[in-house]
Design a protein that fits this description.
Radius of gyration: 26 Å
Strand content: 5-15%
CATH class of the largest domain: Alpha Beta
Oligomer: single chain
Largest sheet: 12 strands, mixed
Number of strands: 19
Strand order of the largest sheet: 8-1-10-19-18-17-16-15-14-11-12-13
Helix content: 40-55%
Number of domains: 2
Structural class: alpha/beta
CATH architecture of the largest domain: 3-Layer(aba) Sandwich
Number of helices: 18
Distance between the termini: 20 Å
């Protein structure tokens, strides 16, 4: 298969690419369909070589056409192929009708959907609907998906799991839970939003031999963060460098939860910051430096002293374990006025929601609940349209927004929003966000570029989480992510 592209497009843009490839690129539509089928069978044989019995679930439109090509090619390869048609194949048109005709000319038969549709199948190919879903599924389409999801056989989805909206990732009532999804022609935004992370499985890509110029004529809605972004934020170090050259970070927090500030401070050190200071309450200082003497812990005592500390460093992270009382509010106000580069997280976001202000110098890092507070909305509304939520936060508060969650988004200070497709459920653990805050602060201090720091920081944090998960996601703690950061920031990203 082809490498995953960086650019991510709307479903309408991908349809426009398809037309352009046919009309201007001179590739017949049926040729593209055959290439899709060939790619799908190659994925099936590579990942499930022992599977001899394959059920291809076909619906309507070109997605069904892709399925009939897969079925024909699998029969020719000597596999036991059963086609279950949820929609009458006699009603297919154009290239899809031709694919069905070629399948039947080879001796293939399509059986109507029924209760035994998937019996004995060692692999199911989902060619039911594709990206054109715009309403909740019902009837046999919904029932077929429910029966498929109840089985244990692996599922290869063609282009997108049926029932998932190609733009928003929303499950339209019910959606296929795929083991793998093979994307055709270009990546769609729906892969990375809404409900899609729970349905997509592993993602692979087939460009179908279409020239890059066909895709470049369309404007992407997102870009995937890859190692090249990390490499830009982690340039080689000079042999003559000293600690002041690698960024000075101030973490403001720990008044209510000292451990949160310590995690942020240690993460900043592990990401290369040359000097990390934690400004906290006097009572919290011993807990923060215990076992990690490389962190300097101070108790500023008053807002003026804190402001001077903030103005003397390259980046400030405010919020981890800060609390939301009057003292915390004064601390946030002091650093927000004094800092040239600021990462705002956790309790500081709660304070910001209560007392809105704007800045182009900060990175805001809300999870969906914090995003809802910032917008005066609900978690459900945020999750329903995460791109719009991130954009609205930037519009209201300025700067750069990192909307955390499965496939974290970065918007503001960048021409096109970034999306991170790394990370895992094991990272949903107390303190993981504090670690990200420290990573972002270290990179912001080193680069002075909020957009680059945010994108690279999200990527490196997710990669550290994936390395920590090699021992298992269940039972992962934030300290496991910190432990992987040193190896991650010293990897040869390119």
């Amino acid at each position: 298969m082809d490498p995953l592209p960086v650019e991510v497009y709307s479903a309408a843009s991908v349809r426009a690419m398809d037309r352009r490839a046919i009309e201007a690129g001179g590739i017949p539509g049926y040729t593209l369909m055959q290439r899709a089928g060939e790619a799908a069978l190659a994925v099936a044989r590579r990942h499930w070589p022992a599977a001899r019995s394959i059920c291809v679930l076909c619906g309507a439109g070109n997605n069904a056409g892709d399925g009939y090509v897969v079925a024909r090619l699998a029969r020719a390869a000597g596999l036991d192929v059963r086609v279950t048609a949820v929609s009458d194949p006699q009603k297919l048109r154009a290239d899809a009708a031709r694919a069905y005709a070629d399948f039947t000319a080879q001796g293939g038969q399509a059986q109507p959907f029924g209760a035994t549709a998937f019996a004995g199948a060692e692999l199911v190919v989902d060619a039911l609907l594709g990206t054109g879903v715009d309403r909740p599924l019902e009837g046999d389409f919904a029932e077929a998906i429910r029966r498929l999801n109840a089985r244990s056989a692996p599922v290869l989805a063609l282009d997108i799991p049926s029932g998932i909206d190609g733009d928003t990732g929303e499950a339209r009532g019910v959606a296929v839970r795929a083991t793998r999804t093979l994307a055709f022609l270009a990546l769609k935004s729906g892969y990375y939003l809404g409900d899609a992370p729970d349905h997509l499985g592993a993602l692979e890509f087939a460009g179908l031999g279409v020239a890059d110029a066909v895709r470049e004529a369309e404007q992407p809605v997102m870009r995937r963060i890859d190692g090249r972004v990390a490499a830009r934020a982690l340039p080689p170090r000079q042999r003559s460098a000293h600690k002041g050259d690698h960024g000075r970070v101030l973490v403001v927090g720990g008044h209510a939860m000292p451990g949160a500030a310590r995690l942020a401070g240690e993460a900043a050190l592990r990401c290369g910051a040359g000097l990390v200071t934690v400004a906290t309450a006097e009572s919290a200082r011993p807990a923060i430096v215990a076992g990690r003497p490389e962190i300097i812990a101070v108790a500023p005592g008053d807002a003026g002293t804190l402001a001077r500390l903030a103005s003397a460093v390259d980046a400030v992270a405010v919020g981890p374990g800060l609390g939301t009382d009057g003292e915390a509010a004064r601390a946030f106000d002091a650093v927000a006025e004094a800092s040239r580069a600021l990462v705002v997280d956790a309790d500081a976001l709660t304070l910001l929601a209560a007392r809105p202000r704007r800045s182009d110098a900060w990175i805001l890092t809300p999870h969906p609940g914090e995003a809802a507070r910032l917008l005066g909305s609900t978690v459900e509304a945020v999750q329903r349209d995460r791109l719009a939520a991130a954009r609205a936060i930037v519009g209201r508060f300025g700067g750069t927004c990192v909307l955390k969650g499965a496939h974290s988004l970065v918007d503001g200070s960048v021409p096109v929003p970034w999306v991170c497709d790394r990370g895992n459920p094991g990272m949903a653990t107390a303190g993981s966000g504090d670690v990200l805050t420290g990573v972002l602060a270290a990179l912001l201090a080193a680069t002075g570029d909020p957009g680059l720091a945010a994108a690279a920081g999200v990527f490196l944090h997710a990669e550290a989480g994936d390395r920590a998960a090699r021992a298992g996601m269940r039972g992962m703690i934030a300290g496991d992510i910190v432990a992987e950061l040193r190896g991650v920031v010293n990897s040869p990203w390119s």
